[in-house]
Amino acid sequence: MQKGFTLAEVLITLGIIGVVAAMTIPTLIANTRSQQYRSTLKKTIATLSNAARMAQAQYGFDYAGISAQCGANAAKENPEQTQTICAILNGTLTGATYVNKISELKTRKGNSSRTYEITSPYLKSLYGNFSNFHAYILPDGSIFAFYQGLGNLNSCSMPIGVPLKNSYPTGSDLTLSDCVGFIDINGTNLPNTEVSCTSGSNNVQQNTCIVKNDTKYLTDIYPVRLHDSIVEPATAAARYVLKTAK
Which terminus, N or C, of the chain has the lesser number of Cβ atoms within 10 Å? Predict the structure, then answer.
């Protein structure tokens, strides 16, 4: 006598597998995506920090030595001739593409193409409109964009041992006020939204922010500040994601 499963037993088993899959697959996808975001953020910050260190070693200046804004021919600025952030990146990055304004970029939604825009409460609180930020598209497709006035009045320097603040004055004390940018770790792909805290405060002077592996909070825009030979997260949410990267 042959033994086997009845049709009812097979259907019940398949139903159980389907329920378990429905419960676990979204979590697996979220975890995989979060690891990808974290590793890309860590790599991009390391790349930009190393660029400043290389410029210091080869040309004698880093972000603290920036003395002028990127000019009309920024894509060809040479660190041996001018001290701009564009010159630093031109002289140290390989395979990066300069973009004069991020508003020149395009993003796709479905079958349609539209102007690249981001949602960033942090940058909006500083500048209101940041569509004129300059940008570099890195070889892996991630984007590093920065304030177009960087290098206008003050170099990007911060004393050793002084922690980053949430914001800086814009009057006579301009230290780091204009040394701001952001990293879009998946390029022009959506959601183009600033990472946010699932719980706690998004102030870097506090230590309460937690970002869970949730598409609502763990998104693709990470505000940063530049100083000396360092690029570091400018918000507590961005700092938490970098801190938890492997």
Answer: N
- What Rg value do the Cα atoms of the chain yield, rounded? 22
Dihedrals φ, ψ of 2, to 5°?
Answer: -80, 140
Helix (H) or strand (E) segment spanning residue 137: strand 134-137
Tokens linked to 90: 């031109």
If residue 18 lies in a helix (H) or strand (E), which one and from where to where? helix 7-59
Q: Retrieve residue 205's tokens.
A: 């002077």
Cβ atoms of 110 and 147 closer than 8 Å: no
Spatial contact of 61 and 53, defined as CB atoms under 8 Å apart:
no
Contacts of 131 by beta carbon, 8 Å cutoff, 6+ apart: 101, 102, 103, 117
pLDDT tens, residue by residue, 183-233: 999 999 999 999 999 999 999 988 899 999 988 999 999 999 999 999 999
Structure pTM? 0.87
Contact of 194 with 233, CB cutoff 8 Å: no
Cα–Cα distances (Å) from 22 to 27, 30, 215, 230, 246, in that order, read: 9, 13, 17, 43, 28
Spatial distance between the Cα atoms of 82 and 231, rounded to a whole number of angstroms: 21
Q: Is 177:186 a contact under the CB 8 Å cutoff?
A: no
